[in-house]
Design brief:
The radius of gyration is 14 Å and the shape is elongated. Helix 1 runs antiparallel to helix 2. The protein is an all-alpha fold.
Length: 75
């Protein structure tokens, strides 16, 4: 599921059984693919870079559902 299709809730937080599950599944799939690519003898660096970018967007979307903005833990 694309992170830009996350449904919003009235209070701004995700609730059990909502898009959190989809984001977690997407994140897990991206991590598995990244780990697989990193073990290949010949690295596909453009694909690895794209996966890292997708992982970041997915992580930020997941955190956004919990009211956290950005990657700075002091925010």
């Amino acid at each position: 599921m694309a992170s830009d299709s996350i449904p919003s809730t009235p209070d701004g937080f995700a609730h059990p059984g909502t898009a959190n599950d989809d984001l977690q599944a997407e994140y897990d799939q991206l991590r598995e693919e990244l780990q697989r690519l990193m073990t290949e003898p010949i690295k596909d660096f453009p694909r690895i870079d794209a996966l890292v970018d997708q992982l970041e967007r997915t992580q930020l979307a997941f955190k956004g559902q919990h009211g956290i903005q950005g990657n700075n833990p002091n925010e």
